[in-house]
């Protein structure tokens, strides 16, 4: 949210006792979308959103700004867990595809300007091994429901006509992806909700939920229904081993001069990623900067969340080096850096849960694909809670429960070992221009449950 603090709306602190029809815990995308769809479904509902810090404090305000069709999880694992098999996973994939345009349409209808623009995404391969992984990825995408028009391979020359990356061997084009400003989307949704009559409270941490009672530091709330929408911050309410906070760091450059953009050739708002095991995600912002992110320091011992998002200089240097390797000869100055955490389950699969008996539900575990997943999860929660049977309420992530993470210190050692393996594999492949993926990376991918 760097650079937008002076534009951030402020909301009051909650104190006292109150009764509501729906209490939403968490002021990020999931909670805001859930409140939006609940109010649209029944305008008379009394709805309150309780945010422990400030709206968008978590991943919603600190992400890479990709509204993409990438599902929140491993499609093969969803297929195996569902009675619908592969068709259930294909249905999930299609809902994510539809979600991209659905979000853009709502933003248009509500007059929300989040610098949104749908122009697809490019995934660059820097080695022959990376290009081979993209071929396998494309084949998996086709298997699980994307079409040849949705995702396709391009060669080196065609890629460089779009974005002139010096080391590229070719890449993938994804049609269904839009760039946006994360913080502007949070602020726009929040302002829309207040105009609809939804109450938003900041600095209002929910300490516990006991049946229909929410206990806060300065009061209590009786809620007919409660949604837990806290993503990487869910440990205290959902259990410390249900999911862990994985760090995501971003840097953004100062505005680039026109001659630099001509050399880079990035003439549109396409999103950019790569096929490295320690991949990056990037966008050209509406005001002519490059924002680029990666995992940096991936995990803090004991599921620490990192507070306000200070970013180690080593991570800033790592992302800056990556950017300069893409576009040598360009003088980049880093204007801002920030970090946030996303929620990751043990098998990287998200899930939407609703318990009719307790009146409590949750949508979490987006594993870095949260912009579209939050829209879909928040909307699905409302449909489940208010007994609206739709195509979304039967998707395979509804009711899906991932296995628990290992206790510490095994958890810390496992996560850091996985990312170390990936980093070593990237260096190995790039130095040797490998034609095949490193065995270490394959082992790390299977260990983490990422392989489809």
Automatic annotation (TrEMBL):
Q: Which GO terms describe its cellular component?
A: cytoplasm
> Sorted alphabetically, which InterPro entries does this protein's record hold?
FAD-dep_OxRdtase, FAD/NAD-bd_sf
A Pfam family matched by this chain, by name?
DAO
Query: At the top level of its lineage, which domain of life is listed?
Result: Bacteria
Question: May I ask which residue range the UniProt record assigns to the signal sequence?
Answer: none
Query: Could you tell me which SUPFAM superfamilies the record lists for this protein?
Result: FAD/NAD(P)-binding domain
Q: Which residues form the FAD dependent oxidoreductase domain?
A: 21-384
Kindly provide the name given to this protein in its UniProt entry: FAD-dependent oxidoreductase
Name the source organism: Paenarthrobacter nitroguajacolicus
């Amino acid at each position: 949210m760097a650079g937008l603090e002076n534009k951030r709306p402020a909301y009051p602190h909650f104190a006292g006792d109150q009764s509501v029809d729906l209490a939403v815990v968490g002021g990020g995308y999931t909670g805001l979308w859930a409140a939006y769809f609940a109010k649209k479904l029944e305008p008379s509902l009394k709805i309150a959103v309780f945010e422990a810090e400030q709206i968008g404090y978590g991943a919603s305000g600190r992400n890479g700004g990709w509204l993409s069709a990438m599902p929140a999880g491993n499609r093969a694992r969803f297929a195996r867990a569902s009675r619908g098999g592969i068709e259930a996973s294909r249905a999930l994939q299609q809902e994510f595809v539809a979600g991209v345009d659905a979000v853009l349409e709502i933003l248009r209808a509500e007059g929300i300007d989040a610098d949104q623009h749908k122009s697809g995404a490019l995934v660059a391969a820097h080695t022959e091994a990376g290009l081979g992984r993209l071929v396998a990825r494309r084949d998996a995408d086709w298997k699980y429901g994307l079409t040849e028009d949705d995702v396709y391979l391009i060669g080196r020359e065609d890629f460089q006509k779009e974005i002139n990356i010096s080391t590229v061997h070719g890449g993938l084009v994804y049609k269904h992806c839009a760039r946006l400003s994360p913080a502007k989307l949070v602020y726009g949704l929040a302002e829309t909700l207040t105009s609809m009559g939804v109450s938003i409270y900041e600095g209002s941490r929910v300490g516990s939920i006991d049946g229909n009672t929410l206990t806060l530091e300065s009061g209590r709330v009786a809620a007919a229904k409660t949604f837990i929408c806290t993503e990487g911050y869910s440990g205290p309410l959902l259990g410390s081993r249900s999911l862990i906070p994985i760090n995501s760091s971003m840097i953004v450059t100062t505005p680039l001069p026109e001659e630099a953009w001509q050399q880079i050739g990035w003439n549109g708002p396409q999103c950019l990623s790569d096929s490295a095991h320690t991949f990056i995600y990037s966008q050209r912002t509406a005001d002519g900067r490059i924002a680029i992110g990666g995992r940096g320091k991936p995990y803090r011992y004991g599921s620490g969340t990192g507070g306000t998002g200070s970013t180690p200089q080593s991570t800033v240097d790592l992302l800056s080096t990556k950017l300069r390797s893409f576009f040598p000869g360009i003088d980049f100055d880093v204007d801002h850096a920030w970090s946030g955490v996303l929620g990751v389950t043990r098998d990287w699969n998200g899930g939407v849960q609703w318990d009719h008996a307790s009146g409590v539900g949750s949508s979490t575990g987006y594993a870095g694909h949260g912009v579209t997943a939050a829209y879909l999860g928040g909307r699905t929660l409302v449909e489940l809670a208010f007994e609206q049977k739709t195509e979304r309420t039967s998707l395979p992530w509804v009711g899906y429960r991932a296995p628990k993470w290992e206790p510490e210190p095994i958890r810390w050692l496992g996560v850091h070992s996985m990312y170390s393996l990936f980093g070593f594999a990237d260096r190995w492949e790039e130095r040797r221009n490998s034609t095949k993926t490193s065995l270490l990376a394959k082992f790390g991918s299977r260990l983490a449950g990422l392989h489809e």
